[in-house]
Write a structure and sequence with these properties.
alpha+beta; Toxin - Anthrax Protective Antigen, domain 1; Cytochrome Bc1 Complex, Chain D, domain 2; 29% helix; globular
């Protein structure tokens, strides 16, 4: 262990810690003593550094911040401290020892007792004793000071009698729901995301440039391109949409721009102008084609297999409570014949920032889905084409769609409107004046925007990678298909079991459970995550799943970096373990049938598993390319501590640290697992059989 010599930086860190958060809040104290007081997931983090003080909510007391980056929204790059506060939730009274990884200075208090303290370039060298920790809510405080130079890195771990050293899981952290600072942090974060999603900077010019690597998720992104809109979209749908987008789709982000009382006829005239250069006369449109029954049936099966209903409210389906899915009621009326299938094959072609992912559909599959959606479509109310010509520029269409300097219209600069109360004045208010956009936002969203304004609109231009990833996970609806931090996915809770009832074939009998996201940021190397999100077919590890992992190419870099940062991990790449021939041979033996029988369920170098049951398993030959060593070894000790639904057995206990393979190194589990990983890390990249 080597202590840092920069005393002035340490004194600054100590001072900032005092400024950041001296005592637990009254809300935290009350919630600690009364288990009936509600709590929310995560911890409240108070960052102090150049630029002041910033409160955020984090899943984990973990971070990875480069010296050129802002540690939290609104702060500048440079030395900083952070205090995490909330509760450590335990199901049983137990004995725990705490440890850390990373670099800098850390102090950890549980129920006011100091359980870990130290400063080092390698925090894993700190030693701490074990403490008896009570069942239930234990007040938790973690103080961290970044090192004076280099990256700031923190990961907090624990170890108990029944489990080996591991990162503390997100489910263990909560904070009082009534905490004032937590409420402000939550609302301002929501407001910052909404500010970006509503494209406010497309009209209100900011006095700062865009660095998209550090801006709020979606800030500066354009809306769908209007190019070739006449070939793609139905004119009468465009007319109804621009009159009142929220009436067509309640969670639409496009505002109402047309004056009150605009007739359908005038709107249709504008719709024709928007699609200039292409005739939209009914006579020129492709003739409607009745969906072929067989095609529609295949499309219905695809819609079910892809889980479309987790993100979309399908025509005729009953809405859920507080349903925020995108409605497809009017999708058949929106797209001209064949255009919907074209869109489904490449949703991001004319809208790179779209939340609609690529599913790598074939033209035939996309056509079948279009047939199905048209077969269940709701008939629209027709509009008549009457009126005089008008220009889209009058209504600022190109402020967001295909913006160019010569088409942009002046609007109040961001610095000016940032001085006003957004609940009472402006586009977000209930009564915008004149020709202002009208977003018709619910009251809680208006309050969130106002909370963001009070924190400072400049925070949208310099946010942390953690917050950008957290917003992206929400906006891209990752939890529609994946479990995160113990919260079940919408697909499972709302739309049935994860297997095929009455299955007859072996493939159908395999569980359709999708992998969890809880530990994804510390599980996978960043380059692998990028490849998955970019849609690389070689990364499809579970070909037995009817569901397909979709691609989000525009958001791949952001998510790969941000998800890792949430767990305190920097960029890592696969590395082959250094091991002697004997160790490698034993590792191969333990993986094979005569060892732990891993190949009973797992593919290996193209060889089919010999005894697959109701759960499929990934190709072990790719483990070294995908997985970080720390995660892989932790999985071997106890898979269910990472994913409760896992059917993979445990081969050793933390208490005894021995396996049944006692003829190899006297059953030393740690040594055996290390040999297995050494062999796996040296396997060449392969592609899983289709």
């Amino acid at each position: 262990m080597r202590a840092h010599a920069a005393k002035p930086a340490r004194r600054l860190g100590a001072l900032l810690l005092v400024v950041a958060c001296v005592l637990p809040t009254a809300a935290q104290d009350a919630a600690a003593s009364d288990p009936g007081i509600p709590v929310n997931p995560g911890l409240l983090a108070a960052y102090a550094g150049a630029g002041g003080l910033a409160h955020t909510l984090q899943r984990l007391p973990a971070l990875h911040v480069q010296p050129t980056e802002a540690p939290a929204p609104g702060l500048q790059a440079g030395p900083f401290t952070v205090v995490f506060e909330g509760f450590l939730q335990l199901e049983l009274r137990t004995r725990l020892s705490f440890s850390a990884e990373g670099r800098g200075r850390v102090r950890v208090f549980v129920r006011g007792q100091l359980v870990l303290e130290g400063e080092a370039d390698d925090l894993s060298t700190l030693k701490a004793e074990a403490f008896r920790i009570r069942k239930g809510r234990n007040p938790l405080r973690i103080e961290y000071t970044a090192p004076p130079t280099g990256a700031a890195v923190l990961r907090l771990c624990w170890q108990g009698d029944a489990f080996v050293r591991e990162p503390i899981p997100p489910e263990a952290f909560t904070h009082a729901r009534s905490d004032t600072n937590a409420g402000h942090a939550s609302r301002s974060t929501q407001g910052r995301a909404l500010f970006a999603a509503l494209r406010c900077v497309n009209c209100h010019e900011a006095d700062v440039g865009f660095d998209h690597s550090q801006t709020a998720f979606g800030l500066g992104a354009t809306a769908p391109s209007l190019v070739r809109s006449g070939e793609r979209l139905d004119a009468e749908w465009i007319a109804r949409w621009i009159i009142d987008p929220q009436a067509m789709r309640k969670n639409a982000r496009m505002p109402r721009l047309l004056p009150q009382g605009t007739t359908p006829e005038a709107a249709l005239t504008l719709a024709r102008s928007i699609a200039r250069g292409f005739t939209l006369d009914a006579a020129a449109a492709p003739p409607p084609v009745a969906p072929e029954a067989a095609s529609a049936q295949r499309g219905a099966a695809l819609v079910a297999d892809l889980g479309c209903a987790t993100c979309h409210l399908l025509p005729g389906a009953a809405p859920l409570t507080e349903d925020d899915r995108v409605e497809l009621t009017h999708v058949a009326a929106k797209f001209r014949q064949g255009a919907l299938a074209t869109f489904l094959t490449r949703p991001d072609l004319l809208y790179p920032a779209t939340r609609m992912p690529r599913f790598a559909l074939t033209e035939a599959e996309a056509s079948d889905i279009e047939s199905h959606l048209r077969s269940i479509a709701v008939a629209p109310t027709p509009a008549n084409a009457v009126g005089s010509p008008c220009a889209p520029t009058e209504f600022r269409c190109q402020q967001c769609h295909d913006p160019r300097p010569d088409t942009m219209l002046p609007a109040a600069p961001l610095a000016a409107i940032a001085q006003e109360d957004w609940t009472a004045k402006g586009c977000a208010s209930a009564n915008p004046s004149g020709s202002m956009a009208r977003f018709d936002l619910p009251a809680h969203e208006v309050q969130a925007l106002e909370a963001f304004r009070k924190v400072g609109v400049a925070t949208a231009f310099k946010t942390s990678a953690q917050e950008r990833a957290r917003t992206a996970v929400h906006e891209l609806r990752c939890q529609a298909c994946h479990v995160l931090d113990g919260t079940s996915d919408l697909w499972t809770t709302r739309f049935g079991p994860s297997h095929t009832p009455g299955a007859t074939t072996e493939a159908e009998k395999l569980s359709q459970t999708r992998p969890e996201l809880t530990f994804i940021g510390e599980k996978l190397h960043q380059p692998w995550v990028r490849r998955v999100l970019q849609g690389d077919p070689a990364t499809r590890m579970r070909p037995w799943l009817r569901a397909k992992m979709p691609a989000f190419p525009a958001h791949a870099d952001l998510l790969a970096r941000g998800l890792a940062d949430q767990h305190g991990w920097p960029e890592t790449i696969p590395t082959a373990e250094v091991a002697d021939a004997e160790t490698l041979a034993i590792g191969a033996q333990l993986i094979a049938r005569e060892g732990f029988g891993c190949t009973a369920c797992h593919w290996l170098n193209g060889n089919e598993p010999y005894a697959t049951f109701e759960f499929g398993a990934t190709d072990l030959a790719l483990a070294g390319q995908r997985l970080r060593k720390d995660h892989a070894l932790r999985w071997l000790w106890k898979p269910q501590r990472i994913m409760r639904s896992s059917r993979m057995p445990s081969y050793a206990t933390a208490e005894e640290r021995l396996t049944a393979q006692d003829g190899i190194w006297d059953g030393d589990a740690q040594r055996q697992f290390g040999a297995m990983w050494a062999w796996l890390s040296r396997q060449p990249a392969t592609t899983h059989p289709k």
